[in-house]
């Protein structure tokens, strides 16, 4: 799956991933390969990313939106890292 995490200031992640866990409005959820298409709002919390080498990255966000379609994931987020 190809993931982009974009904040108003910059892209904070771009690359191929195995799994992503996000703080959804009604609780945390995970996206794996071939996930059904969705668009969802995100709450303040942590995005967990597992890349193709099984390495984990974590990103703090203040909310945002996720779109998943055909193994491409785009997250537009307000980041605490800015």
* Number of discrete domains: 1
Number of strands: 6
Q: Any low-confidence stretches, pLDDT <50, length ≥5? A: none
What structural class is derived from the secondary structure elements? Answer: mainly beta
How would you sum up this structure, described in words?
This protein is mainly beta and about 80 residues long. The protein has a single domain (about 1-80), classed as F0F1 ATP synthase delta/epsilon subunit, N-terminal (ATP Synthase, domain 1, Sandwich), CATH 2.60.15. It is built from no helices and 6 strands. Strands 1-2-4-5-6 form a 5-stranded mixed β-barrel. A hairpin with a 4-residue loop joins strand 1 and strand 2 (about 10-25). It starts with a strand and ends with a strand.
């Amino acid at each position: 799956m190809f993931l982009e995490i974009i904040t108003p200031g910059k892209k904070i992640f771009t690359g191929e991933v195995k799994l992503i866990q996000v703080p959804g409005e009604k609780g945390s959820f995970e996206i794996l390969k071939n996930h059904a298409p969705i668009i969802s709002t995100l709450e303040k919390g942590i995005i967990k990313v597992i890349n193709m080498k099984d390495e984990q990255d974590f990103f703090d966000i203040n909310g945002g939106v996720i779109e998943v379609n055909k193994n491409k994931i785009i997250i537009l987020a307000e980041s605490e890292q800015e």
